[in-house]
Amino acid sequence: METNSTIVRSLNRNYPITMEEKWAFAKRKPMFFGYVAAQYFLSTQKQKPSRKEMDVLALAEQKEFQEKEHHIQYFHWKGEGKTILLVHGWNGHTGNFARIVPALLEEGYNVIGIDLPGHGFSTGRFSNIVLSAKMVRRLVSEVGNPDYIITHSFGGAVATVAQELGVLAQKLVYIAPPLRLEILRKSFSDYYRLSEEEQEAMRLVLERKVSQPLSSLDLGAAGPKMNNSLLVIHDEDDLEIPFSMGLAVSKAWKQSKLVKTKGLGHKMILRTESVKDEIISFLKEV
Fold first, then answer.
1. Which end of the chain is more exposed for a tag (fewer CB within 10 A), N or C?
2. Angle formed at CA 124 by CA 205 and CA 23, multiple of 5 degrees
3. Which residues form the AB hydrolase-1 domain (predicted)?
4. Alpha-carbon Rg of the chain, whole angstroms?
């Protein structure tokens, strides 16, 4: 009787099952594992902006659009010059560009930053490259094509897919870009020691979610089709997205420049004066 009572209490608890509990259960039920692993892979962890980031965001006009169940927030710092679109990285938000935005405004640029699905002030707990790219395209349908796009990490992949969906830009700045989603999926699988069968189940679910083969989400393959200029800035000590990926992305573009930094890692690179200067210099080039 006591055992049954314990079971009833656990089934009727008023808090959601954690992703870790779902994972442990799915490991015993292979038929569910592909779904749970994909859900785990695509789940986001929203980061609260710092006071400095909030101060910069407060200078912008905050707006929202809705696409199906997604409520997407974006920020607009109005300027008379060319338009720049900011696309943040995984688990990031527009505020991550807080050290770069003031310099862009000083140069007179019109700056817009989007919080991707499941990130920042936008709704949701999950995201993926294709969904995020579609939200970028939706934003562009309202504000027009940007002249330049500046991204960090995952944002580089999003911007690339968005361009394949029709978004146009003259210049791109990719800070610490990933090369292809399949590599990230493989790293995830290795970290959690997934079997080949489990990896395949996960891959199939992911492909259903993005409605295309994971192999097609490849910046290296997309590069030769792009006619815009690209600046890649990547730190050789980046432990999240290896420098080799940024190097490969740079080599794939017809017109590209690679700037290698040292000792900044994956996040400090956004808060460094020399990186900001490289971006401004590149945007000013004729």
1. C
2. 45
3. 83-161
4. 20
* Nearest-10 Cα torsion for 125, 128, 129, 132: -40
* Rounded Cα–Cα distance for residues 179 and 230 (Å): 14
Sole residue written with tokens 């003031």: 102
Tokens, residue 236:
């050789």
Predicted TM-score (pTM) of this structure: 0.89
Measured distance between the N- and C-terminal CA atoms of the chain, rounded to whole angstroms: 79
Please give the C-alpha separations between residue 51 and each of 25, 122, 142, 163, 214, in angstroms, as whole numbers.
Answer: 40, 19, 30, 33, 37
Token look-up 């954690």 returns 18
Phi first, then psi: give them for residue 62, nearest 5 degrees. Answer: -90, 130
Residue whose tokens read 């979610």: 209
Geometric angle at alpha carbon 134, from 129 and 269, rounded to 5°: 50
Report pLDDT digits (tens) over 101-155. 999 999 999 999 999 999 999 999 999 999 999 999 999 999 999 999 999 999 9
Residues with Cβ within 8 Å of residue 70, at least 6 apart in sequence: 117, 122, 123, 124, 131, 135
Angle between helices 19-27 and 30-42 (to 10 degrees): 150
What CA–CA distance (Å, rounded) separates 45 from 192? 18
